[in-house]
Amino acid sequence: MTSNKMIISIKQITHWGKRVLSTLRDRVKTFLKSPKTLKPLQLPAPGFKPATKQYEIHASPDYMELKMAFRDIGRMNAILETLGRDFLTAMPDGAYKSRLSQIGFLYRRMHEELANQKIATLIEKAHAHEQKHPDDWDLWDHANLREMEIMYRHHCQADPVLIEKRARLMYEGRRVHREVRRNNDWETARPFLENMVDLHRQLAETKCLRNNEHETEAPYQALLREYIPGARVDEVETLFTHLEKSLRRLLPEVLERQANRPAPLPLTGNFPSDQQMWLNRSLLSVMGFDFTRGGLYETGHNPVEGGTPDDTRLVILTADTSTFLTSMKSALHEGGHGIYIQGLPRDTWRYQPVGQDLGAAVQESQALLIEMIFGRTKEFFEYLSPRAEGLFQKFADPAMRADNLFALRNWVKPGWDRRNADEITYFFHIRLRTRLERDMISGKLAVKDLPEAWNAGMEDLMGITPQSYAQGCLQDVHWFVGKFGYFPSYTLGHILSAQIHDRMKRDLQNIPDLLRAGDFRPMRDWLHERIYQKGRLLRPAALMEEITGSPLSIQPLMNHLEERYLMAA
Amino acid sequence: MTSNKMIISIKQITHWGKRVLSTLRDRVKTFLKSPKTLKPLQLPAPGFKPATKQYEIHASPDYMELKMAFRDIGRMNAILETLGRDFLTAMPDGAYKSRLSQIGFLYRRMHEELANQKIATLIEKAHAHEQKHPDDWDLWDHANLREMEIMYRHHCQADPVLIEKRARLMYEGRRVHREVRRNNDWETARPFLENMVDLHRQLAETKCLRNNEHETEAPYQALLREYIPGARVDEVETLFTHLEKSLRRLLPEVLERQANRPAPLPLTGNFPSDQQMWLNRSLLSVMGFDFTRGGLYETGHNPVEGGTPDDTRLVILTADTSTFLTSMKSALHEGGHGIYIQGLPRDTWRYQPVGQDLGAAVQESQALLIEMIFGRTKEFFEYLSPRAEGLFQKFADPAMRADNLFALRNWVKPGWDRRNADEITYFFHIRLRTRLERDMISGKLAVKDLPEAWNAGMEDLMGITPQSYAQGCLQDVHWFVGKFGYFPSYTLGHILSAQIHDRMKRDLQNIPDLLRAGDFRPMRDWLHERIYQKGRLLRPAALMEEITGSPLSIQPLMNHLEERYLMAA
After folding, report:
1. CA distances from B253 to B377, B416, B431 (A)
2. Could you tell me if residue B32 is inside a domain?
3. Can you say whether residue B239 is alpha, beta or left, with left for phi > 0 and alpha for psi between -120 and 50 degrees?
4. CB of A311 within 8 Å of any CB in chain B?
5. Helix (H, G, I), strand (E, B), or coil: what is residue A228?
């Protein structure tokens, strides 16, 4: 053991001690504030090691060099977040073209710095060191090197020119989408989407993964894995088939039960946009979002999640002033993303691969846990209702009562609109999109036949026929910004969120009381300890298994839906 | 002549033809709108060649490669503009440290891409081509290669580590300055400034220029040249000595004359910040600022000029609601910078060195031409007064009359405050700062002795003793952000602006009428044709000589000041 290691050990012990102390202190504080929220004191699990620092000298100089290289790559990524947010929210229109070229350039440069022989050699040498001197590598370093290699493999065979082109199209696509949706303009959308599909098929086919996988689905699987590390198309398909079967059975039961109850009262009057934003910011604050490292802003287009743990500025739409529930839903959703991002191991692993989130499915699980699981409970509306009556000056308005807001929010109704779909029919939207994008990437479905396939799918799944392209295949921004393979994340996230919630209930027995008191902190702490602060220490499947003790399963989600939609008073 | 060249010639002819047509079209439009503003039709001067494109294939592949390399450097620069503006205006506080490291990283990377052997070799080879095949190089290409070399030489010997450190300190300094000024805290300011002075001396000494210049003043001259290409310390000193002599003579005369006239009425009541901003934006619009490629925003700290021709977002301070003249002054000043930047040859030379502005002295000449020369005339206030009476709801308020606003704005009074100084005493502020920064860089003045030297200088130049550090040597942000060598630009710009105005008056005889009508367009067009669109085609001294027909001279400025402050009714 070198003297360097010794110093680190002492540092680690101090760190460990501080952590236990601060855990204790927090418990005491929580106790003093609200005895109901006390949860059993949990010492760090044995085997869990506090993260060491990204600048810590490591015995392998090659790994050290990799850490420095990935730091710069991470910085470029963070710079791209800032450029992209500015592009979508504040940039003057005339800067459009030049900004696209700056973004494309930086993506290309980032790609070039990552996908080159030098990085490959360093990774190989670091692996050799890892095998020869296992004692020099802790869990975090192992994971960091593993994630470096995965990032490298994802990039190494893609043509930098395609990367640059894709980056430009990703941002151009937002504007194209806004226009074609507004004008119901399929003729303009079609060639753009064809271009996007071709580009992504080409990119996927050149991926390293291709070397080992020659099936028809391999390109779609490569795209899927950009969002959901380690995902398999066939496994997703099996899961979705089960879920479809269960939900096709559940939906009519729910609708029948609903038909026998009075419909909720619609909201009336005006909900000014700035008051909606005040409410949304306050709710995020209550949930533990740190406004000194982020914010919540408005846009005229689609919401934007993301950012970095140091700068998590979220963007939502508040155009509709006839209800506050729509923008609140967005705020809770993006807030769920934001709180996860802010909890990543920032001080210790900033910019390193192991310090990043676990990809779209886990991201969505965190967003949907807040938005759908917690944010649609009766208890949450009991917290919200009196405060909303005050804020919007609607004392004694029966539509503002907790039970009415709850009923409004959880009203189940098949429709064309994914973004405002209820918790049950939401899946059918995802089911359709997943199938269509898979078929477009494999070449089974031509873009020109998309509208027809879309409408047939909607008819089959929900008995709905969209009245326009804008209400049909032009409603979502995803394909226009190249997010092929993203849609399944919503449903996988929903499944995960129910599994996580199930487990959480065993540790925190009083969640309904906490929600009624507006006290999100115990839930946030629970998530922070088990998910946020671990970054990519484990791969998604392993982490979920560690937390929930079981593999991915639709049962907890089905239980949750049955409880809420068939059994609740 | 290659066939490539043929195509270019046809393109050039078409371009030329379009330019003449559009000039004609604009004239007709102007004529129809407002016959008074008609100016004689001007065909492009013989010898003036429309700029060719940055992507045009060039016979020298080395030059072509340089163009691509400088394009990426230019993009990084543009990205830094966006990061920096966001840093100063919108970023959440918690992102402070990580953003500093991103900015520092990008500066270092930009430096590394510019200051390396590959660029040097390409420049050498391109020069060889230039000499061997002079017909392949037009004026713009010559100038572009020359500016590439100058940029290279400015960077080539600086240590990348110092560059990164400087970039971080530049941004940290803004925050430090805000704090120390607010708290009158010299003890915190001193070590920070010592660090800044040392760093800049060190940087200056390692500059390539050092190789040929061993005098005491050489480091300061190297810094000066970052802002004013080709400037010489001794020439600036001679000019400033003359100007000091003339103004020491003029000032008492002006004060005596002023004492015999009634003092202007102070503004009373409240000028809400959002109305000030509306006024400022409207004035900029009238002046020809293009809001589709820029904007005007508010900040709590110092104004920020700059941006790129594609994205010129200006930032000013509007904290004071007891007068609209202060924020208007800032808006006109930053607007002058902005209009110049927006007029640079964007479509043809985007990101290339020859497409950039001519440095701080010419920049300031454009800002001061708008702010001080035009924006303080009686005629401008005649345009402004009735509109301001309406906007701020102050009909029949005698303080709002044009002659009173004019008198308020042009009231001469020695004081401690540079930013709000009048047009005559402004120079004394610059004189003092130039001398002090020169002496700090040469080592003649230690930072610890700065407050004393400052107060002695103020006493000597204007008979003023600042009442605090905040009113003394802590009032300006420049040294805190490392802008040693910038201050002389204000006075050189003032001198230039008077020379340019002198020449402009010969082409446009009705400037006072135009100002009274709020028609800035003929002046803007005049400046655009002679300065903005030329980028760095000529070096500053050569361009100014081309425009004004004479070398730098203080006479036009002295004439202007005597006319406005001794002779005006």
Report:
1. 20, 20, 20
2. no
3. alpha
4. yes
5. coil
A527 occurs within a structural domain: yes
A242 in a structural domain: yes
Q: B129 lies in which domain range? A: 61-219
Tokens of B53: 């494109």
Distance CA B112, CA B128 (A): 24
Q: Which of A75, A98, A291 sits opposite B78 (nearest CB)?
A: A98
Tell me which DSSP letter residue A370 carries.
I
Q: Does position A547 have pLDDT exceeding 80, yes or no?
A: yes
Inter-chain residue contact A79 with B102, CB threshold 8 Å: yes
pTM attached to this predicted model:
0.85
Tens of pLDDT, residue by residue over B543-553, are 989 998 898 99
- Structural domain includes residue B10: no
Phi-psi region of A558 (alpha: psi -120 to 50; beta: other; left: phi over 0): alpha
Residue B79 to chain A, least CA–CA distance (Å): 7
Question: What does the alpha-carbon distance between residue B31 and residue B420 come to, in Å, rounded to a whole number?
Answer: 39
Whether B80 and B127 share a structural domain: yes
**Residue of A82, A94, A295 lying closest to B310 (CB–CB):** A94
Beta bridge partners of B314: B296
Is the CB of A529 inside 8 Å of chain B's CB atoms?
no
| Rounded CA separation B308/B342 (Å) | 7
Q: Looking at chain B, which residue has its C-alpha nearest residue A350?
A: B98
Report residue B504 as tokens. 């402009």
ipTM, two decimals: 0.83
**B86 touching A, CB under 8 A?**
yes
- Could you tell me which of A4, A279, A11, A316 has the C-alpha nearest to residue A135? A4
The Cα B386–Cα B222 span in angstroms is 48
CA-to-CA distance for A78 and A306, rounded, in angstroms? 10
* Spatial separation of the C-alpha atoms in residues B291 and B331, rounded to whole Å: 14
Which tens digits make up the pLDDT trace of B323-370? 999 999 999 999 999 999 999 998 899 999 999 999 999 999 999 999
What is the number of alpha carbons within 13 Å of residue A105 lying toward its C-beta? Answer: 21
Interval B96-136: pLDDT, tens: 999 999 999 999 999 999 999 999 999 999 999 999 999 99
Q: Which among B190, B219, B248 is the end of a domain?
A: B219
- pLDDT value for A303: 66
**Which residue type does A331 have?**
A
B153 and B262, same domain (yes or no): no
How many H helices and E strands in chain A? Answer: 22, 2
| Residues facing residue A312 across a β-bridge | A294
Tokens representing B93 are 């506080």
Choosing from B219, B250, B273, the residue where a domain stops is: B219
CATH number at residue B545: 1.10.1370.30
In B249-330, which ranges are E strands?
294-299, 312-317
Q: Which residues of A touch B86 (CB under 8 A)?
A: 82, 86
Domain count, chain A: 1
By the CB < 8 Å criterion, does A313 face chain B?
yes
A414-424 burial code (b ≥16 CB/10 A, e <16): bbbebeebbbb
B164 and B65 within one domain = yes
Cβ separation of B79 and A75 shorter than 8 Å? no
Decide if A79 and B72 are in contact by the 8 Å CB cutoff: no
B261 and B138 housed in the same domain: no
Q: Look at residues A71, A53, A62, A65 and name the one whose alpha carbon lies nearest to residue A130.
A: A62
